[in-house]
Specification:
The structure is a single chain. The protein has 4 helices and 8 strands. The chain is an alpha+beta fold and about 160 residues long. The chain has a 4-stranded antiparallel beta sheet, with helices on both faces.
């Protein structure tokens, strides 16, 4: 997922896609850019632009995380930045094939993806049948969210 809510975010997202391509991500597909209200952010945070991107990566999830952080930094995002504040670019790994990772640096699938329409809707646009490790597809999770389903517990 690519997103941000500061002036220049749209260009930063386009540049990020090209940097992913140049770093070896193949078969890139991108959703359209969608606008969404800020969630879990400080009061008065402007709306976000969000876009899903899928592709093939030959490296490890950790290598991809490092690439995401490098691209964010090059776009002007400070290395230590609160997730509750505005930013020009955010690159989140939502899924990595069927891998499940729970480490201090990386959690896959993203622990709140199933609760966020701004993640599921753009991802459903380009990859609706992609499955989460629990076997549910992106489209099924989006439908649950749209119909008001609330899971009993939320990790992190």
């Amino acid at each position: 997922m690519l997103g941000g809510n500061l002036p220049g975010t749209g260009q930063a997202m386009a540049t990020a896609v090209e940097k992913f391509r140049m770093a070896g991500v193949q078969n890139i597909r991108c959703s359209r850019i969608m606008m969404s209200a800020a969630e879990d952010c400080v009061s008065g945070t402007p709306d976000f632009l969000d876009m899903a991107m899928t592709g093939s990566w030959c490296g490890t999830p950790g290598d991809l995380l490092a690439l995401c952080q490098q691209i964010e930094c090059e776009a002007g995002r400070p290395a230590h930045h609160s997730s509750r504040e505005s930013r020009i670019l955010d690159c989140d790994i939502i899924l990595f094939g069927e891998e499940v990772i729970d480490s201090p640096d990386l959690t896959i699938p993203h622990p709140r993806a199933h609760l966020r329409e701004f993640v599921l809707r753009p991802l459903a646009e380009i990859s609706p049948q992609t499955s989460f490790p629990d076997g549910m597809t992106v489209l099924e999770k989006l439908h649950r969210l749209e119909t008001g389903y609330k899971p009993d517990t939320v990790k992190r």
